[in-house]
Structures are given as C-alpha cells and as structure tokens.
C-alpha cells in the first residue's frame, strides 16, 4: 500500500493565503490585526517557535511584537505585563510562550489573558466553549489537525479515532473536537495515556490514529491497523552527532516502518507542526474581526 503523505506545508499555505483577503478587509476598516508574544527565558525551541511566529505575521501584514523577559522574571512582573497587553488596543491576540520557567504559575498566566485575546485557546472559558460546541478560539495544534483532515477530505463521521496523549495543549482539546456533532468531526473517540495498560489494544483498532505523547518512535507498525490514517503530532529532538546541529527532529511514530501500513500519514518535520502557526494567524485575524463586530454594535 502506498501511503499518502499529508503535507502540513500545503495545508498551511492554503490557510495563510485565505487570510490575506480577511486581513485586507480589516485594514480597510481601520484595524490592523495585532499579536503580542511574550517569551520568558531562553529556551532554544521556544526561541525558534517565537521567531517563526514573527516571520508569519510579517509575511501577512499582521502587527507583531515580541517581548523578551529574563528567566528570573517574577510572577508579579509577568502578570503586570499581561494586564498591560490586555488593555493595549494595538493587539487583538496575546500569547505567553509555554513552557514557562518552573517558578512561574502557567495556569495563573493563562487565566489572566482576556478570553477575547486568548489566541492560543487555552483560557478555561474558551476551553469550556469548545467542549459545549460554541464558537471560540481553538487551540492551534488540534485545530491544525482538523484543518488537515478537512483539506484532504478524510472522512471522520462514524470513524473510530484514537488519541494518544491527554495534555491540555493537544490531547484533551483534540478529543473534544473530534466528537462534536459537526462536519469534519462526529467520530467515536478513545483516548489513551500513561495510565492505559495496553495502548496497542486500542491503537491497532483505530481508523484514525492521532499521536501526541512526546515519546520518540513509540508507535511501531505492530500498533497500527492496515489502512489506518496516522497523524503524528509529536516533535522530539533526538541527539544525532551526524547532524550539524547535533540533533534531528522526529515524531512519536516510527514513520519509515509505519507508513507502508497506512493509507495516509503525516511526516515529522513537515506535518502538523507547520499547521500550528497557521492556525495562530487565523485566530489572530478572527480576534481582530470580532473586535470590529463588537464596535459596530456599540
């Protein structure tokens, strides 16, 4: 079986192209969509991700500002910055890059961002709206998975979707998106995690397998059903002395061994990871549009 490789770049480019007209219409009405990103400390992976966000904003004509804080920043200082960005009308989206240094309370920061500026989709109010199926900002990576499935016309209704991982960032929202009674969802969903005694017993029955466990190569060919669709959300740095940087990126799925058994699969890199920033841009534009709509009714 020749697996179809699901290209994150192709789908992300389509999303970004579709935003250009929406951004132009916002600007015609006097509003330039704006995103503020706060980075605390010097985590290399976070630095790369924040830089890519800035480049995406620049390419689309979205106002972008990155605020760098030292790793020893205290909670009070970070909270005060979030409060200031909440009231800054230039920015429709506010994002504090996770993970934060261990002495800082991530949930406190997430709760502090106004729900209407929470373009990461992590605020408890927005998560609650997601669960009950209301319009809201969707967490970017799960939303990117949904967009990829739609783009490639992959049927989800009535399918058995198995999600490996239960993080607040990917696993939990992924589950809640997949079972909604909506086009592109309406699936029967099973979630597996570190407390699941025999993960293989579930993954080998999945029509669509979505893996977000953060464990390099944990899904082998013996864990996947023939003809399944496999979405690998994992992005792991694995030491590789042969590489110039000393590491390579790999997913949670053993791609080379698994792909021959699937009907479609995402690569790492080049798959879901590219969708995350595209969906962040979409959320930022959505936030600007919603502000414009509120102004019309005031």
List keywords for this structure.
Rossmann fold, 3-stranded parallel β-sheet, 11 strands, alpha/beta, 2 domains, 6-stranded parallel β-sheet, 298 residues
Briefly summarize what is shown:
The chain has ten helices and eleven strands.
What does this structure look like?
42% of the residues are buried. The strands form three sheets. Strands 1-11-8-7-5-6 form a six-stranded parallel sheet, with helices on one face. A three-stranded parallel sheet has the order 3-2-4, with helices on both faces. With 298 residues, it is α/β, with parallel strands linked by helices. Strand 5 (160-164), helix 7 and strand 6 form a beta-alpha-beta unit. The radius of gyration is 19 Å and the shape is globular. The mean pLDDT is 95. 40% of the residues lie in helices and 17% in strands. Helix 1 (8-28) packs parallel to helix 10 (273-296), helix 6 (140-151) crosses helix 7 and helix 6 packs across helix 10. The chain contains ten helices and eleven strands. The chain folds into two domains: 32-114, Leucine Dehydrogenase, chain A, domain 1 (Rossmann fold, 3-Layer(aba) Sandwich), CATH 3.40.50; 140-275, NAD(P)-binding Rossmann-like Domain (Rossmann fold), CATH 3.40.50.720.
